[in-house]
């Protein structure tokens, strides 16, 4: 049976950190600059190669024109335990749309986003294996905190087999004075994705500042399904836009796990943004922090009276003296389903990313990571590398081993192993010899205990003092 992976591409792009022989192509425009993309596909099958078909869709649902000699769909094979990188992508110049990848084996997919300001900004998200009749965007904003700073856009893709009529409902942050926003009704062709930019939507005309959430639902809940991706673009530095990218949620949980929280960590901080997705119950939302070894403790925090579809915001500091690095757990009282997005930021130098909080019911003893890098690039541009941030689901100390899966042409590095409740595996030099590595990884526990993981991608010694060199994505629990 063929398996489908959907990519709700906001702007298909070409990621310059990967080596490529094909000529670079200018692609979709948004916020006045060009955007590029790459796609990474990891074969999860341990016995068979994966035969994949990559479909590119225009916003009207038609198949896009591809660069010669490629035909739509593009047929390819991903070897056992190998990750394929598509850079440049196969679409023609100016493409802005969506992608569906069909495979006869289990695969995991991520997509990297690049905004082509003078100093490029970076974001990441994972491909969807399924959609739902309702999806949630916990954090959207316009001109926050002031004009020409942070504004969100989001994409909704039809992942069903029939045309989908959708309704987008906006809810301002609880306790704020932000105005109510009118609903949006739209229709999505099969496979297509439509983009919604808060700086361009007529519903937000005249709104000088807004922070809140959005819920998107389909009219035909029997036959239709959708998925989505949100991106917040910070334009504070005109030559170095910043991106925080996350997947829309298709379900919530009464407890949410967050593998990485930072406060006053060399100028880095996080913010936690949780949406109450219960249709009727108002609740109090509490975050409890778990420090990693050697970190200071941090007291719990509670936000009260969070109404249905409203958000609770927990903002960590970056200018104070008390450092915290660790994980966190979010709970609610009375218990309601929640979805949480964590923003990571180093404001002084323009680094920005986001990741999605985890439902404890999704925990497993194995996590798959489609894109891992070490010393990928050049000294003048700064080497790209990743860190794997693991949190145990039960909060207890366990041993975790990460097995690297090289892309074609790379040798297999030595496995990494660590013990603790909050763990960080750095790929600054995965071989220990200064050699480049590109591939994936599979992290697992030695005692069948459950874990979650996120991957941060960043760059060593970039030439620009201000640049968004940070992106994040959630690991796939297997």
Write a structural description.
With 478 residues, the protein is mainly beta. Mean pLDDT is 91; it is low at 9-27. Helix content is 0%, strand content 51%. It has strands spanning 3-7, 29-30, 33-43, 50-57, 74-78, 83-86, 98-103, 107-115, 121-126, 134-142, 150-158, 164-172, 184-188, 193-197, 210-218, 226-234, 242-247, 255-263, 269-276, 283-291, 301-306, 311-315, 324-333, 338-346, 351-356, 366-374, 383-392, 398-406, 416-420, 422-426, 437-445, 451-460, 471-474, 476-477. The strands form eight sheets. Strands 2, 3, 6, 8 and 9 form a five-stranded antiparallel beta sheet that branches. Strands 29-28-31-26-34 form a five-stranded antiparallel beta sheet, with no helix packed on it.
From the spread of the alpha carbons, the general shape counts as: globular
Mean pLDDT, all residues: 91
Quantity of strands, as a count:
34
Determine the CATH topology of the largest domain: Hypothetical Protein Tm1070, Chain: A
CATH class of the largest domain: Mainly Beta
Distance between the first and last residues' Cα: 19 Å
Per-chain topology:
Blueprint: E1 3-7, E2 29-30, E3 33-43, E4 50-57, E5 74-78, E6 83-86, E7 98-103, E8 107-115, E9 121-126, E10 134-142, E11 150-158, E12 164-172, E13 184-188, E14 193-197, E15 210-218, E16 226-234, E17 242-247, E18 255-263, E19 269-276, E20 283-291, E21 301-306, E22 311-315, E23 324-333, E24 338-346, E25 351-356, E26 366-374, E27 383-392, E28 398-406, E29 416-420, E30 422-426, E31 437-445, E32 451-460, E33 471-474, E34 476-477
Antiparallel strand pairs: 1-7, 2-3, 3-6, 3-8, 4-5, 4-7, 8-9, 10-15, 11-14, 11-16, 12-13, 12-15, 16-17, 18-23, 19-22, 19-24, 20-21, 20-23, 24-25, 26-31, 26-34, 27-30, 27-32, 28-29, 28-31, 32-33
